[in-house]
Write a structure and sequence with these properties.
The chain has about 210 residues and is of the alpha/beta class. Helices cover about 40% and strands about 20% of the residues. The chain has one domain: Flavodoxin domain (Rossmann fold), CATH 3.40.50.360. The longest helix is centred in the C-terminal third of the chain and has 22 residues. It binds flavin mononucleotide (FMN).
Length: about 210
């Protein structure tokens, strides 16, 4: 039985456009994989710890091969509680609204908590970074009110899909479904944009179902 972790990146609940596409993808996936186990992690309602100085010290201690002690050890334990839930999944679904060109800050906090040496990545000075996740896959839904790929710079720039794609590959995830529902606000044909995004979600779910154990 496969386990999916749905990471909710929009705080807009029932108003969220990315959630509409994610829900469709999830429904289509569940049709094909009725035993799919789904863990929903709503970044706006989960009590994520701050990534503060102790967390940074814990990360740097582990990278340097040092011993964790006292507050820094506690910080590392807080981090690994977050990473364990993440690494337990086989497949990830992210909703990623564009916020000021990039990703919402709660999602960045989550990534900062997750991105730990020996868990999600390895490093050595000769080869650089390597992703440590094996056999996992992801789907990400990207929304933006105004931006859409191919528009002139006055309509914005994509640091959300590009950043997520970089990060997913950095942790070892190569199988990535990119679902775009863009633009959600500035469209002269809003129904066509939505309908294309929903169809893409169905097709992506079909491909994902073939991948999952
Ligand atoms: C804080 C904030 C920043 C935003 N920044 C951008 C932006 O840089 N470019 C853009 O095209 N839309 C931007 N938007 C619009 C959202 O990306 C758009 O409403 C999208 O549908 C949000 O996804 P959601 O409906 O799942 O929350 C922003 C919205 C908010 C609330």
């Amino acid at each position: 039985m496969s386990k999916l972790l749905y990471v909710v990146g929009s705080p807009r609940g029932g108003e969220s456009r990315s959630a509409v596409i994610a829900d469709r993808y999830l429904a289509a996936l569940r049709d094909r994989l009725p035993d799919l186990e789904v863990d929903v992690l709503d970044l706006w309602h989960e009590a994520l710890p701050e990534f503060d100085g102790d967390k940074a010290a814990a990360k740097m201690t582990v990278i340097g091969g040092g011993n964790l002690a006292g507050r820094v050890r506690t910080a590392w334990e807080d981090i690994t509680a977050v990473t364990s839930r993440f690494t337990a999944a086989d497949h990830y679904l992210f909703t990623v609204p564009m916020w000021n060109g990039g990703i919402p800050y709660r999602l960045k906090l989550y990534i900062d908590l997750l991105m730990q040496p020996g868990i999600l990545f390895g490093f050595n000075p000769q080869d650089g970074y390597t992703g440590l996740l094996k056999g996992k896959s992801a789907a990400a839904v990207y929304t933006s009110g105004v931006y859409q790929p191919g528009m002139p710079p006055a309509f914005g720039a994509d640091f959300h899909a590009s950043y997520m794609d970089y990060w997913l590959r950095a942790i070892g995830i190569e199988q990535i479904e990119t679902l775009r529902y863009q633009p959600t606000l500035r469209s002269t044909e809003p129904e066509a944009v939505l309908s294309a995004a929903l169809s893409a979600a169905d097709a992506a779910a079909q491909r994902t179902a073939l991948l999952l154990p």
